[in-house]
Amino acid sequence: MAVTSEMNSDNANYDIEPVLLNLGPQHPSTHGVFRIRALLDGEEVVDVEPVFGYLHRGSSKLAEERSYTQVITLTDRLDYLSGMTNNLAYVRAVEALAGVGVPERAQYLRVMTAELMRIASHLMALGFLINDLGAWVTPLMHMFREREKVLDLFEMICGARITFSYMRIGGVSHDLPPGFDVAVNGFLDDFEDRVAEYERLLLENEILVSRMKGIAPLTGERAIECSVTGPNLRASGVNFDLRKQAPYEVYDRMNFDVPVTQNGDNWDRMWVRLQEMKESAKMVRQCMAELPDGITRTEADFFIRPPVGEVYSGIEATKGELGFYLVSDGTIAPYRCGIRAPSFINLTVLRELCIGWKLADLIVNFGTLDINVGEVDR
Amino acid sequence: MALFGAGAIKGLMVTLGYIRRKPFTTQYPEDKLEQSPRFRGNTFVWYEERCTGCATCAKGCPLGIIRIVTHPEPHSQVGSDYHVDVFDIDTGRCMFCALCVEVCPYDALHMGGDFEQASYGREDMVISVEDLKAMPKKPRTQFRPQMEMIGHTGKDELEEHEAGRWSL
Ligand code: SF4
Ligand code: SF4
């Protein structure tokens, strides 16, 4: 029997069954090996279930068999788009446990590299978001170009582009190489133009506005209830940033604003990231200007043995609050190493963000949450 | 209501703007990018004369992929002279973190800058002591600030007496 439009328009006569759609684990929009089971009623999403674990490497368990310094190499691989902040969160936890001080110059270097990392990570978040919106890889390549320059800077400092292992317990592993200030200032000058270009391309784009404004709002109360942190929380109108609320390293000396928006929709989540990149660039400039002389590392043993005890220490990483919970039994390896991964906890709200919206919005919601699967599964 | 097609024209203006910029990409196998002096490639530079066989590097490696076998030199007058028989680095599992380079107390092991070490099998990726002896001695300055002080950029060969921190 031929189906006519009149028959389709009257759904009441038919028994509509929701369709279970499997997205991933190998799907270009899942940013890694991530699977979403979506229950669809036509185009509309009825239920969403994130399925993860495909990238599980057992980082917490591996850490129990390695000395404290060796664990730094594992933290590079948690959120592989922001290795510096992972390093920083971990070494800060060990320093709190062992009572190791950090020289001032090293603190500045830590802040500078963490902010460069934030730029690189947010660039990837925005680039892949536009990729998810259907523009495919042309705009993504623009973001890759800028990230490439940040990675070049990291290669100058520590010799690696992704797996840095730059931070050390009691400081950083390398001082700045000769010629670094010229390179970083060249990048920053260029980057201001580039951000202006991105703003023009993104914020004035009709497709982006209509696909993102007002889509999937998250209220501030709900975000707090679900322990959402990072740019996603600040997009929902909650002014909470560990760099301001509990300043670590030299963030209390940095002049920067925390961008906060009120709607919590996809548009705001993107906008907050765009603005944060500008603030980070400002902080990198300030760090280079105020960089004091001195040593970059205190003498801490390679096989350090912190006293018996436990510690939790969190920092504002690129995706949210990244915390490490370490238990020491006095040996050279941690007895327990727990990781509070922001990507994993931000996933809590994915289900309620997607229900009631279209399937095409699901991909965008997932993109603006900025999940890194390496960190979700650890 | 915006003019129909205004967005497309705006997009093309961006394309036009890019015409006068130089391309950022390189044609890889023909053009190669310069690596920074600290670059961690996937080879190692090892000076036999500097190495005492102390195996600190093997202990410092997070993955335990360095295997060292030594025996005392029979003709040696002092007991500290060991001959390195086996120095296997399984680069198939190595993550090039340079912790082995950091902990080497005699500046005998350094990172190399080569990054084209593809092979057909995992067993070919194990660097043996013969390979280490034969490799060009072009150490990178990773964890070797003394090399940066003498202006070494990782492109030239360094003699074994120039690689150490006491040779300045
Ligand atoms: S670079 Fe790292 S993983 Fe490779 S041998 Fe050295 S310590 Fe081990
Ligand atoms: S390379 Fe260095 S750490 Fe390794 S055995 Fe030789 S001297 Fe010791």
Give structural notes:
With 378 residues, chain A is mainly alpha-helical. Helix content of chain A is 49%, strand content 12%. In chain A, the strands form three sheets. Chain A has a three-stranded antiparallel sheet. In chain A, a hairpin with a 4-residue loop joins β6 and β7. In chain A, α12 runs parallel beside α15 (359-369). Chain B has 168 residues and is α+β, with helices and mostly antiparallel strands. Chain B has one domain (33-150): Alpha-Beta Plaits, CATH 3.30.70.3270. Chain B contains five helices and five strands; from the N terminus they run αβαββαββαα. The radius of gyration of chain B is 23 Å and the shape is elongated. In chain B, 30% of the residues are buried. The interface between A and B is medium-sized, with 29 and 26 residues. Bound molecules: iron/sulfur cluster (2 copies). Residues 60-63, 65-66, 89, 94-100 of chain B line the site of one iron/sulfur cluster. One iron/sulfur cluster (SF4) is lined by residues 51-57, 68, 104, 106, 108-109 of chain B.
Per CATH, the architecture of chain B is 2-Layer Sandwich
Tell me, what's the shape of chain A? globular
Structural class assignment of chain A: mainly alpha
Compute the number of helices of chain B.
5
Identify the strand order in the major beta sheet of chain A. Answer: 1-2-3
What's the story with the biggest beta sheet of chain B? 3 strands, antiparallel
Pair with the most extensive interface? A-B, 29 and 26 residues
Assembly status: heterodimer
Count of individual helical segments of chain A = 16
Q: Could you tell me how far the N terminus lies from the C terminus of chain B, measured between alpha carbons in angstroms? A: 73 Å
The CATH class of chain B is identified as Alpha Beta
Low-confidence stretches of chain B: none
Structural classification of chain B: alpha+beta
